[in-house]
Fold this protein.
Amino acid sequence: MSKRNIRADISYDGSGFCGWQMQKNGRTVQGDVEKALEKMHGFRVPVTAAGRTDSGVHALGQVINFRTELDSIPSDRWALALNSYLPGDVQALSSREVPEDFHSRYDARSRTYRYYLFQGPVPIPVYRNYALFVRKTLDVRRLNEYARCIIGEHDFTTFAVPRDSSRTRVRNISSAAFFMDGPFIVFHIEGTAFLWRMVRSLVGTILELEKQGKGPEEFRRILEAGNRQGAGATAPAWGLYLYKVRYDR
Amino acid sequence: MSKRNIRADISYDGSGFCGWQMQKNGRTVQGDVEKALEKMHGFRVPVTAAGRTDSGVHALGQVINFRTELDSIPSDRWALALNSYLPGDVQALSSREVPEDFHSRYDARSRTYRYYLFQGPVPIPVYRNYALFVRKTLDVRRLNEYARCIIGEHDFTTFAVPRDSSRTRVRNISSAAFFMDGPFIVFHIEGTAFLWRMVRSLVGTILELEKQGKGPEEFRRILEAGNRQGAGATAPAWGLYLYKVRYDR
């Protein structure tokens, strides 16, 4: 029996999950998706994702793939079929058949994350799990002076967690910018790949330096120093969204 | 000892509450606010609100008032003081002293509600508790033809729940309009007061008539008929926000 390789683009509210990756204790997105597939197949079907998001991190465009022998469901109807087995906080947006060797993680050419900041005099409860509240009036043009330092190929050791076991901490960032979106300031960053918690560390450091009035030159110095001690506090998970994953094919 | 009358503007995420009004079972906003005040005073302090929102309904500008003998807290610091005793899903935005006879409910001159619709090909999990997902592509100009029928003084019996015990079902609506806001279509309605579940019934009926291609003339006929049978299904609570309350003084 031939198996189809199905790609599904999924979205989730990270608030109720201990991240993407299956673990012994706690609910995970991978766990819920594999449970849905198990109900449909009668046996366990492993799922791969482009980005293994942390606990509390949301996704608007996570990409997963899995192999199936179920012929009764057309490839583009897999999203709908999955949704009838998934809870409301994780849903498939679309689905299609991809080449047999397509791998959602290894084939990803770039990942885009967004970090949402909500600026106001006081925190608004409905935003509390979806954007970081910041009291100070931030200037987007000024924030973009920091963002520009990130663009290009850099060793991001400063923004890596100490126990990061990546072979190299060099990453290539093709775009990084802040923009206004209604009551939010959004940090948009695209790169081939990211170190664990790197986006949150970048955001936390920029906010801290700006608060201290240190400026983008100091940020560049910290980035180039490659010393974790230079980084500010890691920004919380709930402001972060895996926004988009790009592939060549 | 003289008591000050404190007005506080508060905001809450209705998802975790069984509405505003205290009840035997289930968590309520009134219950949480009165618990916070009890911790500060050592005894129960009753609180009045402008609008008794239903279970799941959010508030961006609910207004409450209560009387206090605590002299240690300046009137404009009550918001901050309350927040240190309140959970993250209900927060005070501002506070100030008001005349001794100010009553947040009876003195309200108008209330403004907003209803959020999220239009897309598929539901997005992060919006699921904050906007009603609608699949059809709605036309804001067309929706506003319905909204215009609501403006003015009308008997809203069609949009009242059968057990509504109001003395009169005539209400005066000063503005009603739909507008786009990012990925949302927002219904904005201001009136002196509203019948119980009236806004949700208006929204549900407009969506149903538009889906069936019936048009604003049919909506006007249903409104004027004063017959509950004419109304569509009541739109769900999670799309509704108490947005603003106005006072003469």
The domain at 4-98 of chain A is CATH 3.30.70.580 (Alpha-Beta Plaits). The beta strands of chain A are 4-12, 48-49, 58-68, 90-98, 108-119, 132-134, 152-155, 170-181, 184-191, 240-247. The longest helix of chain A spans residues 198-211. The CA atoms of residues 51 and 248 of chain A lie 17 Å apart.
